[in-house]
Amino acid sequence: MTSNFPIKLLACATFCVAGLAVGQAPAQAATWHAGTPKALRGMYQAHRENQADGFGPVLKLTAKSVSRQNSNWPLIKITHVKYKRLKHNTYLIKGHMQKNGYVLSRPASVYIARKGNRLLTIMDPDFPGSTRKTFHADYRYALRNPFVKTHKVKANGPVIHV
Question: Where do the structural domains in the chain lie, given as residue ranges?
Fold first, then answer.
């Protein structure tokens, strides 16, 4: 009886250490989701910086793409997007920038923070090698196409959008 005790103790200790080593997995704070966050979707427009701009930059977030249009610049469109929530109302959106004019095709990323009806962005796809790390563009909801939550109500008849 005493000769089996050290072997059983060693086997138990081995299984406990192996279980701890295998059971520990690194924690993932946020996971990647396909598309763009529903809370950010819509069309936003920033103010012009000077008279020569024509119109202020327009940022449009759809379910599958992010696009930005400046006056007299080619459209910057990011498709095949995925996003990760970094903190409350702050997201990292990654995707593939489409070639358009002198805008080259390449991977791109955008940091977007929402504060009320405003979007603050860090959009490093503007120029390759950009090192901007602070939120700089202040977009507001465009009045012509604000994001509206709709609830479908059916009361003994056709579907009514409220």
Answer: 33-141
Predicted TM-score (pTM) of this structure: 0.63
pLDDT at 44: 85
Which CATH architecture describes the domain 33-141? Beta Barrel (2.40)
Per-residue pLDDT band at 20 (split at 50, 70, 90): low
pLDDT single digits (tens) 57-111: 888 999 999 998 888 888 889 999 999 998 888 899 999 999 998 888 889 888 8
Q: Which two tokens stand for residue 33?
A: 């989701």
